[in-house]
C-alpha cells in the first residue's frame, strides 16, 4: 500500500469520526442570529462588545497611550533587576508571530469579496477596539504569572483566572477560576496542535509544492511531503528546545522581516496604481455605509469586517498573554500597553494593506468573487499582486512560509505552557510535548484532517468565552496596575527615580 493511499485513508477515517462532532460544536460556538439581512455570529459580537466595554472603561487607552506604548517597546522605561526572560520588543514580536499569518493574506481577500470594500473600514474599527481588550488580558497575564526557580516564566489565562479570581472573591472565586483555567488550557492545547501547527504546515506545504514543481513535481509526491515536513519539524524542534528566549530571538528577526517583505510588496502595487488611491479610499468609505457587498449591505460589510478582525488579531482569546508574560518588567501594565500595539500591527496595518492592495489593483478574479463565484483568498491576493508583479507567487510563497513557521513556533510555546499546566512542568513532560509537536508538523504536510481543524477553530473561540468572563471580573485590578505604571512614568520623567533604583516591588517568584 502506497503512502498516498495510507494518508488518504487516515484523512477519511479521522474526518468520518470527528466531522459530526466538529459540525455540532461549530453550530454552538459560531451560533448566528439574523441581523439586517445577514447572519451575525454571537461569538464575534462577544469579542466586539468586550472591545467597546474596555475602550470605555479605560478611557480610550489605545489612543491616549499609544505613544507611551511605543516608548516602552523602545526600552525607555526598562527597569534593572526585573524578572522575566525577554525584553518588551521580543515579547511583542513573539505574540505578533502567532496572529500574523495566512488569515492576513487569504482571509482579508474573502472579507472584501463577501462584505465589499466597506468591510475594510469596519475591520479597522474592530482592530482599534481589540487593542483595549489586548491591553487588559496581557496586563493580567504579567500580573499573575509564575516565575520559576530556574528563571523561566509561565503565564496566560490558566494562571490569571484562578489566581486573580481567588484574590478578588476568595475560595469560591478560586474554584470558579480553576475550572476556567483547566478548560482554557485544554482549548489552547487543542487549537495549538491542529490550528496552530498542523494547519499551518499543511497550507505552507501546499503553497510551496504548487509554486515549485506543480502537480507533477517531486514536492507534490508523498516523499516530497515527508521531506518538507521533516525539514520544518527539525527547525521548529531546534528552536523550541531553547524555550521562549530562543523563540523570541527568532521571531524578533523573523516578524519584522516577513512583515517588511509583505508591506513593501503591497506598497509596490499601491504606488504602481497611485492615481487610483484616492478612488480606493472613497470606495472603502462609501462601501462602509452603503449596500456594496454580496451579503447584507451595510450590516453585512460591518459583520464581515468585524469577523475578519476578531479572527485575525485574537484579542480577547487569551493566547497572547502567554507570550507577553515572559517579559522583563516590574509593572504589568507596561506590557499591557505594549500588547495593544499587536492588533494595530496585525489588523490596522497588515490586514488593511492587503485589502487596499486588492481594491486598488481590482483583479478580474475579485470581480468574479464578488459576483458569487468561489475563488480562494490566496488566489485573489496573488492576482492583485500579479497586476504589477508577475513574479509575485514566489514572494507570496516566501511570505506564507515565514508566516506559517513563526505561527508554529509561537503556538508551540503556547501549547507547551498549556501542557505544563495540565501535566506538570518536568523535563520528561516537556520532552514528550515537543516530540509530539514536531511530529504534527510532518503529519500536517501529509494530511489535512479538515474536521479536526474545524474543531480546533471552535475550541479557540470557546476559549474567549472563558477568558473574557475573567477579564470583566478582574478589570479593576488592571485599572490599579495602569495607575501604578503611569505614576512610575511620571516619577521617571520628573527625575524622582532612575532605572537603577531598586525601590520597586519585584514580581513574586514561585516554584
UniProtKB/TrEMBL annotation:
GO terms for cellular component: plasma membrane. It is found in: Cell membrane. Keywords: Cell membrane, Membrane, Symport, Transmembrane, Transmembrane helix, Transport. The chain crosses the membrane at residues 40-60, 176-199, 219-242, 254-274, 294-311, 337-361, 391-414, 435-453, 459-478. GO terms for molecular function: amino acid:sodium symporter activity. It is a multi-pass membrane protein. The keyword Transmembrane helix applies. Its main location: membrane. Pfam families: Na_Ala_symp. The keyword DNA damage does not apply. InterPro entries: Na/Ala_symport. Belongs to the alanine or glycine:cation symporter (AGCS) (TC 2.A.25) family. This is Alanine:cation symporter family protein.
Amino acid at each position: 500500500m502506497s503512502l498516498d493511499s495510507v494518508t488518504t485513508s487516515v484523512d477519511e477515517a479521522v474526518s468520518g469520526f470527528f466531522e459530526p462532532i466538529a459540525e455540532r460544536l461549530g453550530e454552538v460556538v459560531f451560533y448566528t442570529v439574523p441581523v439586517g439581512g445577514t447572519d451575525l455570529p454571537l461569538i464575534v459580537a462577544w469579542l466586539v462588545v468586550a472591545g467597546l466595554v474596555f475602550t470605555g472603561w479605560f478611557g480610550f487607552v489605545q489612543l491616549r497611550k499609544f505613544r507611551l506604548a511605543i516608548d516602552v517597546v523602545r526600552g525607555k522605561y526598562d527597569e534593572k533587576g526585573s524578572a522575566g526572560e525577554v525584553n518588551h520588543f521580543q515579547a511583542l514580536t513573539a505574540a505578533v508571530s502567532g496572529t500574523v499569518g495566512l488569515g492576513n493574506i487569504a482571509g482579508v481577500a474573502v472579507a472584501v469579496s463577501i462584505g465589499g470594500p466597506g468591510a475594510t473600514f469596519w475591520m479597522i474599527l474592530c482592530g482599534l477596539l481589540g487593542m483595549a481588550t489586548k491591553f487588559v488580558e496581557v496586563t493580567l497575564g504579567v500580573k499573575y504569572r509564575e516565575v520559576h526557580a530556574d528563571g523561566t516564566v509561565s503565564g496566560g489565562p490558566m494562571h490569571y483566572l484562578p489566581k486573580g479570581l481567588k484574590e478578588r472573591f476568595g475560595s469560591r472565586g478560586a474554584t470558579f477560576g480553576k475550572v476556567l483555567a483547566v478548560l482554557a488550557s485544554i482549548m489552547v492545547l487543542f487549537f495549538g496542535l491542529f490550528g496552530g501547527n498542523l494547519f499551518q504546515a499543511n497550507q505552507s506545504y501546499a503553497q510551496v509544492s504548487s509554486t515549485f514543481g506543480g502537480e507533477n513535481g517531486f514536492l507534490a509526491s508523498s516523499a516530497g511531503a515527508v521531506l518538507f515536513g521533516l525539514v520544518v519539524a527539525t527547525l521548529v524542534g531546534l528552536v523550541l528546545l531553547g524555550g521562549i528566549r530562543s523563540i523570541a530571538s527568532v521571531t524578533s528577526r523573523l516578524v519584522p522581516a516577513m512583515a517588511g517583505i509583505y508591506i513593501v510588496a503591497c506598497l509596490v502595487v499601491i504606488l504602481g496604481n497611485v492615481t487610483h488611491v484616492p478612488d480606493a479610499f472613497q470606495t472603502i468609505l462609501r462601501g462602509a455605509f452603503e449596500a456594496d457587498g454580496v451579503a447584507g449591505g451595510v450590516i453585512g460589510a460591518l459583520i464581515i469586517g468585524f469577523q475578519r478582525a476578531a479572527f485575525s488579531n485574537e484579542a480577547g482569546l487569551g493566547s497572547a498573554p502567554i507570550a507577553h508574560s515572559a517579559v522583563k518588567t516590574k509593572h504589568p501594565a507596561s506590557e499591557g500597553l505594549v500588547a495593544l500595539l499587536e492588533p494595530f500591527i496585525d489588523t490596522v496595518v497588515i490586514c488593511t494593506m492587503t485589502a487596499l492592495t486588492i481594491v486598488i489593483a481590482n483583479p478580474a478574479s475579485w470581480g468574479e468573487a464578488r459576483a458569487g463565484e468561489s475563488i480562494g483568498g490566496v488566489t485573489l491576493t496573488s492576482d492583485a499582486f500579479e497586476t504589477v508583479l508577475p513574479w509575485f507567487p514566489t514572494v507570496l510563497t516566501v511570505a506564507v512560509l515565514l508566516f506559517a513557521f513563526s505561527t508554529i513556533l509561537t503556538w508551540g510555546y503556547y501549547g507547551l505552557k498549556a501542557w505544563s499546566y495540565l501535566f506538570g512542568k518536568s523535563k520528561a513532560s516537556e520532552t514528550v510535548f515537543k516530540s509530539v509537536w514536531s511530529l504534527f508538523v510532518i503529519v500536517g504536510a501529509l494530511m489535512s484532517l479538515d474536521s479536526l481543524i474545524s474543531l480546533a477553530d471552535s475550541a479557540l473561540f470557546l476559549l474567549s468565552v472563558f477568558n473574557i468572563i475573567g477579564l470583566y471580573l478582574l478589570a479593576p485590578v488592571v485599572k490599579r496596575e495602569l495607575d501604578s505604571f503611569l505614576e512610575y512614568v511620571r516619577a521617571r520623567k520628573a527625575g524622582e527615580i532612575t532605572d537603577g533604583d531598586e525601590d520597586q516591588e519585584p514580581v513574586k517568584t514561585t516554584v
